[in-house]
Amino acid sequence: MNFAFSSTAQSYINRLQDFMAEHVIPAEAVYFSQLKRGERPWVVPPVMADLKARAKQAGLWNLFLAADEHNKVHGAGLTGLIGLSNADYAPLAEIMGRSFIAPEVFNCNAPDTGNMEVLVKYGSAEQQQRWLQPLLSGEIRSAFCMTEPDVASSDATNMQATAIVEGDEVVLNGVKWWSTGIGHPDCRVVIFMGLSDLNPKAPKHLRHSMVLVPMDTPGVKIERMLSVFGDQDEPYGHGEVSFTNVRLPVSSIIAGAGRGFEIAQGRLGPGRIHHCMRVIGAAERALELMCKRAVRRVAFGQPLADLGGNSDIIANARIAIEQARLLTLKAAWMIDTVGVKAAMSEIAQIKVVAPNVAQMVIDQAIQIFGAAGVGADTPLAAMYANARILRLADGPDEVHRSMIAKLELKPYRNSL
Amino acid sequence: MNFAFSSTAQSYINRLQDFMAEHVIPAEAVYFSQLKRGERPWVVPPVMADLKARAKQAGLWNLFLAADEHNKVHGAGLTGLIGLSNADYAPLAEIMGRSFIAPEVFNCNAPDTGNMEVLVKYGSAEQQQRWLQPLLSGEIRSAFCMTEPDVASSDATNMQATAIVEGDEVVLNGVKWWSTGIGHPDCRVVIFMGLSDLNPKAPKHLRHSMVLVPMDTPGVKIERMLSVFGDQDEPYGHGEVSFTNVRLPVSSIIAGAGRGFEIAQGRLGPGRIHHCMRVIGAAERALELMCKRAVRRVAFGQPLADLGGNSDIIANARIAIEQARLLTLKAAWMIDTVGVKAAMSEIAQIKVVAPNVAQMVIDQAIQIFGAAGVGADTPLAAMYANARILRLADGPDEVHRSMIAKLELKPYRNSL
Amino acid sequence: MNFAFSSTAQSYINRLQDFMAEHVIPAEAVYFSQLKRGERPWVVPPVMADLKARAKQAGLWNLFLAADEHNKVHGAGLTGLIGLSNADYAPLAEIMGRSFIAPEVFNCNAPDTGNMEVLVKYGSAEQQQRWLQPLLSGEIRSAFCMTEPDVASSDATNMQATAIVEGDEVVLNGVKWWSTGIGHPDCRVVIFMGLSDLNPKAPKHLRHSMVLVPMDTPGVKIERMLSVFGDQDEPYGHGEVSFTNVRLPVSSIIAGAGRGFEIAQGRLGPGRIHHCMRVIGAAERALELMCKRAVRRVAFGQPLADLGGNSDIIANARIAIEQARLLTLKAAWMIDTVGVKAAMSEIAQIKVVAPNVAQMVIDQAIQIFGAAGVGADTPLAAMYANARILRLADGPDEVHRSMIAKLELKPYRNSL
Amino acid sequence: MNFAFSSTAQSYINRLQDFMAEHVIPAEAVYFSQLKRGERPWVVPPVMADLKARAKQAGLWNLFLAADEHNKVHGAGLTGLIGLSNADYAPLAEIMGRSFIAPEVFNCNAPDTGNMEVLVKYGSAEQQQRWLQPLLSGEIRSAFCMTEPDVASSDATNMQATAIVEGDEVVLNGVKWWSTGIGHPDCRVVIFMGLSDLNPKAPKHLRHSMVLVPMDTPGVKIERMLSVFGDQDEPYGHGEVSFTNVRLPVSSIIAGAGRGFEIAQGRLGPGRIHHCMRVIGAAERALELMCKRAVRRVAFGQPLADLGGNSDIIANARIAIEQARLLTLKAAWMIDTVGVKAAMSEIAQIKVVAPNVAQMVIDQAIQIFGAAGVGADTPLAAMYANARILRLADGPDEVHRSMIAKLELKPYRNSL
């Protein structure tokens, strides 16, 4: 048992922390002022291009791509693949999670990371060349169109959108929403998931397909951008998108029709580590902000840190974050050593615990900040909204708890 | 002991519920579409004027003004004063709290209600004529400028803004923020609170004054509008406002210099009943929405209501709301029967419990709604933000808990 | 709406509080020292007889019997029936709940109260004369045998014990446990519930009977006394009792064979008010003890009350108790005014909330007392065990939450 | 980073699990029936001697003694010292914690382990020969007398007992309580802590001494045995002990007068790992029992596992236990690698989190078991009492949270 990071991880941690302190954190205010300057904030603040260039130069680019994914890249000329294990990447995701703008700086932001992983693992040479290359280089952005407004997406078999193969074309129809990143000016492609086999008696995990859809394909329409607690989360945004008789060559289907579920499953393990570590990073930053405020802000003649239960809140936040981090690191290590399937309970556990811990800690930080905490002068409100969504995105808490209980009870049911 | 509402209250409850169902709830969508139509949503959606006219006509206007405040109105010609007790008004506030737009419809929205109460109780005949009349008639809106960015306003003695009497003028300086309603196009006047006695050794509750400041007075500047979780809460909004050498006649001071604290205290009791009952109304509506969704939305072959712990969540929400409501009603009854001072613990208790219950229940409703819950298609996200702010506005939870504990421990300390 | 107790209730409250302060609280230590004196603590400490005599003389006897139950007493000569409403008795139950020994002093302890109510409502003249009279006079004690070890008693239809009518006899077989009070030296009779109709297709609420069983009937055997967290709860105790071919005349059946469920239902409403108010009394005493300790005990140079989050704990305890009390009082008032059936949700709500609040507050009081809190020098450990059992007795929390949710969702399901 | 146990640890884990399954778990019922057979259960059930002999033979003896403590043993002939690191011993402590009787079987029970560690680290050759040898061989038991009834022992500087050096004697006076294990028939010696320097201005961590006191020394008197929730926890028990002019040679003082605090500190780190891992073992067993019950017990036609929120409870228990275990293992690893001082926050964190998690999980297991859960037919009630005490023993939660917050805030305070 060894709780120290590997020397590879530690070296990246150091470099990333330095880069964050020197470049990213100071750029946050610039970024948001550039973003909000015009009437329509769906722009890429110029400072982002600078940061990306610096990160590339510093070798802090595409850090998320796991070691074993290297060999699966068909396309020639993919450079900048570092090949960290999940356990090594996890602390880097946490550091990036401390700033809202950081993940994109390092080309490590969702949903592009998940989409790139899908293309690395399942993409054809042609798909990789057309879409993976510009995604890896950071030229374009992408979105993932899975969730639908009219059905409970927590149960993926509810999906209603269709991707029907007609001759050498695939025809897409349906409405998706909460397609994150689709508002970004550089978003050029989405991965669309839909039913290819309409027979309700067909094996339920062989009925869906994933299709690469260029944003400018006729029939694709962003109906509206959705808000989260009133915030549109620009310039990425969350869109409601309709697909009306969208026709694409069958070569747009990833890995062939009927493999949508298989791909979705493969996408989950590492993606959850990323999400969880980022949100732990946010919680850690919230705790840091809370502590700074608590020692400086004075009421009734004492710093807030010395009033009432505030020190208990700080202690409990520390305990909760430490525990969530250790569990997430263990889940990452299990993915690396025994695989996603054997780590299913742990992966579900972190998906419950990390966003809930973050929501709690950030809420308490807001409380210590008072009204300033809900406004835009600190990153707390945005962090809070993000942690809150994460309790729904990629499966609500309830679905994960249900999975954990199912796995926990299995041996006892089997021995009845 | 009798838990039934008085016949007066019951009659208003019935009329108000009918009015809400017939006019207000159906107008919500219209209101928001009118509000968001233009580039700059700081407008009064036309439907609001219609609703207000109807409410006036229906005799559902200014319901908040308590019975014993009647006699204090110096100015002649004040009509439409109904004179309900706090216990009778409380259930009406709850009903209004079910819709974001309702309180204004009935001229019962904060901070105008608090400002009107101040003017009724402490305003001169001239002040009442100039400001109370148009506020009571709903022609103008007002704001309350107390909280400051640079000090912990939970401890009111921290206040830094000044209201210095110089001859027959009072001169205001300072920066205030979270001045709710100041963005409203009809906001014409604010009540500003500041230090009039700069001697730190003066009795600390006799140093402040409240001053009526017309919005167009030179030196008053809205520096920016603040957001709550990214939402600007238009058309009311929360402003950061600077006061730079703002000069007004001394007759603008309410009740005379040095009485600011006394007035602030008097403002608190009924206002907290209003806030708490409204937020309980929001919690009740969230529970209703959650139940409707839970019986209709299907996942894994069952309505959400029948899955996992959802029925426990619904049961716990019901229990929590019932209890918070009873406690708030009791506090209202105590204000009516034994007065604010004897009800201090109860008033502090409801200020802790009602917003926390609402935050919890609304959060759970959001969870049942999934992604739809954080967006703008349901009132849940806005309700959530409002409940969250209420844990800070008018004193954070911590200050109220501290007060409750102080009162609880007093007899034991005294008998040491 | 009126939160003041009726003058009748207030007069009893005053008298009961005086009696408690003068006689009961000072007798607690005496009682326990008399109880634990011998090797076998299944005795009635002599001080109890004195206290009972005084209570009778003071007219504080059988206070629990509700007003509307008077007329149902067939038997002549029942004296000492006071006839309070549930709302009037509730605060008296709370006061008694402050001391472990108090309920028996006033002949108001479970399960005798429930058994007496059953006999008042459903007992024949003969049954009333034989059992109700000596129970009302406090000469004998009784037990209630419903829960069984081998099945989940939360679902009463699981019951396995039988009460088969054979000619003019009824024959009982089965094993019951957690029969509270059966260890008491004065326990002379139990009410046994069992299946009389073995046909599984018979209407499931018409299959059971309740039978009065003298303790000395052949075939009745106390197999063992059960402990609660290691405590045997003498001299009442909780027994495991076997019934083996116990034969009794059919006149021992209460209200006739097949009416067991109906009687059980009727027993529930007021009994839950009693349980809940008593446990609220315990919580209130725990808070009082906690406050006293917190202002006196010093650590790190300060009274515990001024350290860390202790004042928050006290404030939250106060809030929780106030709310649980108000909800229970409302449920009592509803039973009085609209009946048990219309108050079903409220009755279930208090059964969840009151014991949980008590468990939480007592646990926190224990924490403030340190090791002394878990020992026998304060009443806290016994109170804790009692609150904990109450989350199981008379239906576990889960069953009540399920009922509340069912009632809450009913209108929404009906309108689908 | 590596979450796998070392091969040494894994080998002991396997052997210990086998031994537990084969010998300890089956002996639990025997042990308790032997214990409760007589009138006075302060006996050692004969089965314990058998189990100890087997454990010794299996090389599963004194596993707790950490590697670096070997060299400090002055006395010759100490055998059976295994020398595991804290990280390697931790999973073994967890396994032992699954059974109430297991720790003694392996000579790894508190407070003997802590006392042995003190003697290994600080004992003179003579002290080691006289007391450490028979403790290591399991011939005798010991107790630790620190907590006092009249002062808050959470603040150790409150201590009132005295250990005054008079010539070549040390004279002890004072009253101690919650001296665990002092009721055991084999308890021969206690470590007593008292003030040697009565000058209140002396350095507060140099005023106390620890003294080895044979139980049969004149002036030592067990005043009474204390109960925990009504249970006396035989045959160990918790005693209130008076020391009245107890005279011993100065050679009885451990490491010399004035070093009591230093020794107490050194005792803490590993001891907390032991306590926490044992209580996690109890929580894990409670979860196992809860799952077994939940799949077997049927109500309303379904196993409890499929009813309401029970699966959520199971999932949350799994998450909480995993996290508490990881944090405790990390703290153990830190003690091994960076030392107790650098691990102070983590050691305090586990002391808060592990007993609280255990208390929660065991309480929920009790709820699933219904009335059976609070009785003596399952180990749950005893486990619960033990977890509850652990929130007080060795410093209440509050003191540890305060330490965590202090360490967390330190860098921010320093940079003010």
Describe the structure.
Four copies of one chain form a homotetramer. With 416 residues, the first copy, chain A, is an alpha+beta fold. Chain A folds into three domains: 7-123, Orthogonal Bundle (Butyryl-Coa Dehydrogenase, subunit A, domain 1), CATH 1.10.540.10; 143-254, Beta Barrel (Butyryl-CoA Dehydrogenase, subunit A, domain 2); 261-414, Butyryl-CoA Dehydrogenase, subunit A, domain 3, CATH 1.20.140. Chain A has twelve helices and nine strands. In chain A, the strands form three sheets. Chain A has a four-stranded antiparallel sheet with strand order 2-3-7-6, with no helix packed on it. Chain A has a three-stranded mixed sheet with strand order 1-4-5, covered by helices on one side. A two-stranded antiparallel ribbon of chain A has the order 8-9. In chain A, a hairpin with a 2-residue loop joins strand 2 (162-166) and strand 3 (169-180). Chains in contact: A-B, A-C, A-D, B-C, B-D, C-D. The interface between A and D is large, with 49 and 49 residues.
Give a brief description.
The structure is a homotetramer of 416-residue chains. Chain A is α+β, with helices and mostly antiparallel strands and 416 residues long. Helices cover 50% and strands 15% of the residues of chain A.
Rough shape of chain A? Answer: globular
Q: In terms of structural class, how would the helical and strand content of chain A be classed?
A: alpha+beta
Largest sheet of chain A: 4 strands, antiparallel
Number of domains of chain A: 3
Number of DSSP E strands of chain A: 9
Please state the CA-atom Rg of chain A, rounded to the nearest Å: 22 Å
GO biological process, one term (chains A, B, C, D): fatty acid beta-oxidation using acyl-CoA dehydrogenase
Subunit structure (chains A, B, C, D): Homodimer.
Cofactor (chains A, B, C, D): FAD
Protein name (chains A, B, C, D): Acyl-CoA dehydrogenase
